[in-house]
Amino acid sequence: GPDGGAEVHLPFGGVKETGNGHREAGTTVYDIFSEWKSVYIDYSGKLQKAQIDNVE
């Protein structure tokens, strides 16, 4: 096809001798090789306890 065999919407490249030879070719690889983290940012501008202890 016009995509040259890169079916990135599919999870992997196939089994045994099928596919394009790259099991990490799809976008699902992000879930496998990624570690999810959450970051909370306080935009209120209020001093937090750790900041209050250091205020001079």
Describe this structure in words.
The chain has helices at 29-33, 49-52. The radius of gyration is 23 Å and the shape is rod-shaped. It has one domain (1-56). The chain contains two helices and no strands. With 56 residues, the chain is mostly helical.
Low-pLDDT runs of 5+ residues are: none
Mean pLDDT over the residues:
68
Q: What global shape is seen? A: rod-shaped
Largest sheet: none
User: What is the N-to-C succession of helices and strands?
Assistant: HH
| Strand residues, percent | under 5%
Quick structural summary:
With 56 residues, this protein is mostly helical. Helices cover 16% and strands 0% of the residues. The protein has one domain (1-56).
Write the layout of secondary structure elements.
Blueprint: H1 29-33, H2 49-52
Spell out the key features of this protein.
mainly alpha, 56 residues
